[in-house]
Amino acid sequence: YIHPLVYHLIDVGQSALALWNQALAPSIREAMADDLQMDEETCGRLLAFWIALHDIGKASPAFQSKYQRQAEVLRAFGFDFPRTHGARPAHHGRISAWALKMLLEEMGSMSRRDARRVAHALGGHHGIWPNTIAVQDLRPHDYGSAAWDAARRSLFSQVEGIFQPPQGVVLPQDVEKANALLTLLSGMATAADWLGSMDEFFEYEDLWLGAEEYAETAADRAEAALRRTGWSGGWQPEGLPISFEEMFALTPRPLQQAAIQAARQTQTPALVILEAPTGIGKTEVALFLADTWLQAHLGRGLYVAMPTQATSNQMFERTTKFLHVRYPDNRINIHLVHGQATWDKTTQILKMASIGEGSQEGLRAEAWFLPRKRTLLAPFGVGTVDQALMSVLQARHFFLRLFGLAHKVVIFDEVHAYDTYMEQLFLRLLTWLRAVGTSVIVLSATLPEVTRRNMVKAFAGQPATDPPTVSYPKLTIATSQEVKTVSLPPPRDRSVRLIWLDRAPENIAAELQARLAQGGCAAVICNTVGRAQQVYRALLAAGFPAAECLLFHARFPFAWRERLERKVLDTFGKDRARPERFVLVATQVVEQSLDLDFDLMISDLAPVDLLIQRAGRLHRHPGRGRPRGLDTPHLLISRPLGSLQAPDFGKDRFVYQRYILWQTWRALQGREELRLPADTPELIEFVYGPFEPEGLPLDTSKGLRSAHMEMRKAFGEADFEAMKRLVPTPDDERLLTKAWQDLHDDENPALHREVRALTRLADPGVTLVCLHRMADGSLNTEPDGSGDPVDLDHPPDRDLTRTLLRYTVTLRHSSVLKYFANRMPWKAWERSAALRYAYPVVFEAGRCSLEEMNVRLLLDRTFGLRVEREETP
Fold first, then answer.
1. Residue 21: alpha-carbon gap to chain centroid
2. I want to staple 218 with a disulfide (CB 3.0 to 4.6 A). Which of 14, 170, 444, 837 is the partner?
3. Which of 367-371, 492-496, 510-514, 528-532 has the lowest mean pLDDT?
């Protein structure tokens, strides 16, 4: 069977029209219709018509020659197939852009400039906008002679007759508005093309039907496709906001009430930055404002962007509970969105959130939205910030992701965790989100003043004056019309005692033995995985029973790490029964967003904002009884080697900038306590504000100057790397036609950093799938054989692929990277998009030797993955 091209054009056009009428929120329909100066019904028909034309380039010898049997039939009807002389046939998207430039101008009465831009937007439906040079370089063997031109004109006329679009359409004169509109058109075209290409809905026809007759059949199929895939029939805003008390069954605190009062009537799209201490209820404020805006302005949905997978998992559970209570009678399509998120993981968290199987109670994760490029299209999602940042990187389908975020509210939590590279991506993302009608809520306990000003400028799109200086905590509101910052009622200060101690693991273990003599729950937060493993080993050596301590870091296979994460939350979470004595040794995985409470904390020296964040986990839950001696919160900080005048930060300098660590040490030197939140602004500005070396001893001044220059150089390099990968700003005149697209890959982690679409400027890593050899020689995902059996000679099916992904670990160790650098992808996994760039590693009794590197990998449930040098015989 074949599916006639005209049928496919109609299928996709009807899918686009169904999306417009049944799936897109009222706000996006109103905005796009206003930009095109027409009513919504006419605008829907116009967009459906344009999108239907996306594949008109398939009416060409370059495409039709791919099916020789059909090519012979076409030859008999007078269609020529010019010789290519060995040239590679052009992609049909390029030919669509080439043909539509002329057809939209000649047959659609559009200006040449507008026709060209619409043509390029439609020609990019496979993920890349064809640039002007690529389109101009097409040759007759690509697009054919007069017969092919007549065929394309006939297709144009038939589609036009079905959708009855207006003539002489004019794009907005404002460049940013036009680019935003065309970006959304590209994303909508891709989504409609994917729907219209699903043969389970759009079946091949045995009988030939006229275009108008077939259009009726296609319209019915498009509605069924939307209904079955979860695009339609679910949550839509009804314009009915409710109060905070109704939403949470709580009376808002004074800070929450003031923030809500200042921001709830804001015109959207808007940026709100809420800076307030941990544990003050920022998340509830954000969810309330997001829901209020969605209802008041009839928005499209919500995405919550977190810094890590662990924080995403917890926030997903929290958000699903919120939506279940807020919309108990609605079918809500919600997804967990990060690299390890699967249908199984989503269902598991829904169960833990006491929401049954999801679909039974209204919450569900529709399978159509599961592929990575589609998840942001779902109305509700919680995931890592990386998924949002991908929408402004020069990678395939970035505009599809922007379409997924358009006219939603996006909450970015813990933004102080972003490094310089991520911050540059985030600023560009803010610019684009405003352009596509998306409101943003930024949450942070600590934020340097310059960072806040940069965010405001990026979103507001105007060289406005800096927001006035106001006291912390504070709320900043920015729109394209105004910027204002207001002070919020501060909570009562609390004191955290500061104590410095020797950083040796044995000393930390002895300190814990002494301070936990009467019991208590403590956390030791280390800056690197290797140090966390050393400290944990020292605890065991000092006599701590294994039942009273736990090691938690990112170098466990994900399936094991999930269980550890759940145990951490069950042990230290709110309203949980606490053990009499327990020590958690962890890395930064517990630093952000996890609602944990400790009686005592020991931390490596870290940037001051992160120390404040960590201190927020001390005595976090009021009313909890504390053991004797721990009734006052104490933060013990591991003193770096060297002196304050000439510090040695060891391997920590590879995690954080030496200058920032040094300034933090200086800022805290001589302090016996932190008064939070009162001390927060002063400490943040001392570390992150202007560098002022005057008055320092000569040696210190010289060293700090050197560290500062080193940091500025690193920041400049990070900025440069970000700019190489970023999509141009929405006010770029040549956005859709310039030759910058498809420069970076967002899938292959083995590629050199120069050609990858990175959301984080980390060192390259290799993904290992951890397997274990059993006594009979077989392989299993668990060392005791209780997991799934694996045959490396056979391609895994979908279920086994999902399982294998849960047993991955990413390593950035130089010797390990070198070992796998020259190895080909595992042959049986080549056809698996998820496993193509992963390598199986087989452990025997928890050991795996990489003999060429004299390196040994050790893996167990206690320490996770360790890398050790083997002694040369």
1. 28
2. 14
3. 367-371
